[in-house]
């Protein structure tokens, strides 16, 4: 009688064990991919808000630089303007807290510069804060904060001379 040699192949137990190990590994990989996609979505949302803030601030700074400063000796109305920037004769910036939109109106055209705005402030300075020296060109401080849907915020500030130039 011939002796039987050892059979080659895998048993059902080995297959089940291999399948369980593969399942655990794939579940971990799937969890990591899901986390990576969520982080990517949050980063894209935050980037969108940052781009809106930079765009809006850039447009406002350009408006301030392009504005014609008042004639020497002309008194400027308000030192602080919060929601409506009527301090520029050529353009007006309006923040609506109810909608979170910051709009720019030039002539008859109005366009939205940014949404998700949670704060906007503009302060007009006709004299240097520390020394009291009168500015030839008034200076406007602009502050803008945007908040994305997941709560991330971006704040930008600018101090710009009205009409450009130097003091």
Task: Give a nutshell description of this structure.
The protein has 167 residues and is an alpha+beta fold. The chain has 1 helix and 8 strands, in the order αββββββββ. The chain has one helix at 12-66; strands at residues 80-81, 84-85, 92-96, 101-106, 109-114, 117-127, 134-147, 153-161.
Structural class: alpha+beta
Overall mean pLDDT stands at 80
Topology, number of strands: 8
Please write the string of helix (H) and strand (E) elements. HEEEEEEEE
Poorly predicted parts:
75-85
Choose one word for the global shape: rod-shaped
Radius of gyration, in Å, reads 30 Å
Portion of residues within helices: 25-40%
Descriptive notes:
This protein has 167 residues and is of the alpha+beta class. Helices cover 33% and strands 33% of the residues. It contains 1 helix and 8 strands. The strands form 2 sheets. It has a 4-stranded antiparallel sheet, covered by helices on one side. It has a 4-stranded antiparallel sheet with strand order 2-3-4-5, covered by helices on one side. A hairpin with a 6-residue loop joins strand 2 (84-85) and strand 3 (92-96). The radius of gyration is 30 Å and the shape is rod-shaped.
Give a quick set of tags describing it:
alpha+beta, four-stranded antiparallel β-sheet, 1 helix
